[in-house]
Design a protein that fits this description.
The protein has 118 residues and is of the alpha+beta class. It has five helices and four strands.
Length: 118
């Protein structure tokens, strides 16, 4: 087996599981089921960081969303890619943001119980 074949095989094994959440309105959010140790540290540092507490909390929510979100479909319009997802989150309505925060809490409780929920 050639080197490239072995590398492709490893990449497939390392892909994180994904979980899809559906809102009452039919919007869909797909989140990764894995976080690197570095991301976990960065999240904890951000959450208790030197910023104003509200600013730190907002940034921590954004960081989790940025690292976990794979795809967000709103009104049958899919958004993918880290930058695009974060931009969409930043312009989301209050209800959309609240739903995403609730989903992040649920997802973290299931997949990352050691993390303090946002």
């Amino acid at each position: 087996m050639g080197r490239r074949s072995r590398q492709r095989g490893k990449a497939a094994k390392l892909s994180a599981p994904e979980t899809e959440y559906v809102s009452d309105g039919g919007d869909r959010l797909v989140l990764r089921g894995a976080l690197t140790a570095g991301t976990r540290r960065k999240y904890e540092d951000t959450l208790r960081g030197g910023l104003q507490q509200e600013d730190a909390w907002q940034r921590a929510v954004e960081l989790l969303f940025e690292r976990l979100a794979v795809r967000w479909t709103i009104n049958d319009v899919p958004t993918e890619g880290q930058h695009e997802l974060l931009m969409r989150f930043r312009v989301a309505s209050a209800d959309e943001r609240r739903w995403v925060r609730d989903i992040l809490r649920e997802h973290c409780a299931e997949h990352f119980p050691e993390l303090q929920a946002p």
